[in-house]
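ping. complex inputs:
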Amino acid sequence: MKKINQVYHALIDAYGKQGWWPVTDKGEVFPEYKKRKAFSEKQMLEVCIGAILTQNTSWTNVEKAIMQLNKNKLINVNKLAKIDQSKLAQLIRSSGYFNQKAERLILFAKYLLNNYSGSINKFFNKPLQNLRQELLSMHGIGPETADSIILYAAKKPVFVIDAYTKRIFSRLGFCEKDISYHELQKMFHERLDCDFKLFNEFHALIVKHAKQYCKKKPECNNCPLNSKCQKTYKHKNLLNKHDYT
DNA sequence: TACCAGGTCCTCG
DNA sequence: CGAGGACATGGT
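pong. complex structure:
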C-alpha cells in the first residue's frame, strides 16, 4: 500500500469520518453535514459562500457570518446580486476582510445570474476542468477556493490543497514546505484513486489533524502520525520557532 | 499581548 | 515568476 494511503487510514482510525462540508439549516449551524441525498441549491450556494468567507479565516468566524446571512435570507443568488455592498460587508463583518469578501460574494452571485440564470446546478453541470477554469477566472477565487467549491459543493473529484496540507505533508517528508499548490495537488492526484468521497474525507481529516496535533507549533505527543513522521519534534522545547516547519 | 486562522490580489524588482 | 504587503475579525 502506498504511504499516502497509510496516512489516510491512520487519520481515519484516529478521528473517524468527518462528513464535510459543514452546512447550516434553518439558520442554525451544524458541526456536521447531515447525510442528505443531494444538496439543495441553497446548500450548494452556502458551501460556495463559506469557501469564500473562510479565506485565511477561522471557521468559527465564518459561521457567525453565515448565520447573519441566513437571518437576512441572503443565501440566495438573486438577493446577493442586488444587495448593497457596504450593507453586506457589515453582515459578514465577523469573517474578516469583510469589504473584499462582500465584493467577492456579489461578483460570484452576479456571475451566476448573468451566465446561468442564477442556477448553480446548471453551472456545476459542466466538466470539472471547465468549471475550474471558470471559477479561477472570477475575481477573488483562487485555486483553493475554486477546488473547495468543486469538491464540496459540486462533488467532483479534485484534491483541495491548503496551508494545513502543506504543513502536514512537508513535515511528513512528502514534499518541501514551499511546494507550489499545483505540484502538491499533482502528488495527491497521482497517488490516490480519483474518488470525490475519498478526496472529501481526506482533506477534512487533514484539517482536523492540523488543528488537533499538527499545529503551527506542533504537539507531537500522542500524535497519530508519529510513527510515520520524519520530524518527531521530540525535543520541541529546544527548537526555535523557525524549526517548526 | 501577540499570534493565529481551511487565501487572493496587487505591486515591484 | 516570487517576494512582500494589504486586507480585518475573534479566540487563546
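The domain at 40-153 of chain A is CATH 1.10.340.30 (Endonuclease III; domain 1).
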